[in-house]
Amino acid sequence: MPPGLYRAIKLVNKILLIKKYHVLLALLKGFRNGAVYGAKVRAPHALVTTFLFRSTSMQEKLRTIVYATYTHSRNLACFVFIYKSLTVAQRWLLGCARQPQAFLAACVGGWLVFGTNNSINSQINMYLLSRVLFGLVRLGTERGLLPRPAQDTFPFFAALIWGLVLWLFEYHRHVLQPSLQGSMTYLYDDSNVWHDITDWLVFNKPHQKCKDSQ
């Protein structure tokens, strides 16, 4: 390692351990972690769904993947930075940490970052909704606000969820998210149509060459 680079890294490491800079550095690392985690989560998902469900050019597919990954990464990074900044500010103003501070800071961050109605934010918000509902039920059970079930209720939960989603898909599919509509169309509608073994077993739909030859 060049001596100049070694000295620079040593200086940076020394600064990182200075206590008075900890809050600021925690905000920056939170931004960094949000960006990295957002990219890690979105890139594989965008890659799979784009190549599975989009019949566009390779350039358009790559553009879609990059945009989705960038948007998710940027939004999560900005939210983490806003949330941590507001919790620090409230703690400094009030002199202590209280539970409503986290709720208020996250509400502001959610409004500013995830309040725009687009496909990325919609997926993230719905993902969190299911986790929040699960968590609230468990918290209510722990606090004695909800009765603790005498038997495992997960099979009933699974039956209700799948019953409702297939009912909505079959008779009111317009109310479902486009991505969910696409997935369920692939599973339940496309499996009813084929022309020969190529689009019965190998492909979901016949390729253009096959169509032209028919």
From TrEMBL:
InterPro entries noted in UniProt: Pmp4
Main subcellular location of this protein, as a coarse class: membrane
Subcellular location: Peroxisome membrane
Pfam families reported for this sequence: Tim17
Key word Metal-binding present: no
GO cellular component: peroxisomal membrane
UniProt keyword terms in alphabetical order: Membrane, Peroxisome
Family: Belongs to the peroxisomal membrane protein PXMP2/4 family.
Description of how the protein assembles with itself and partners: Interacts with PEX19.
Name this protein carries in UniProt: Peroxisomal membrane protein 4
Species, as recorded: Eptatretus burgeri (Inshore hagfish)
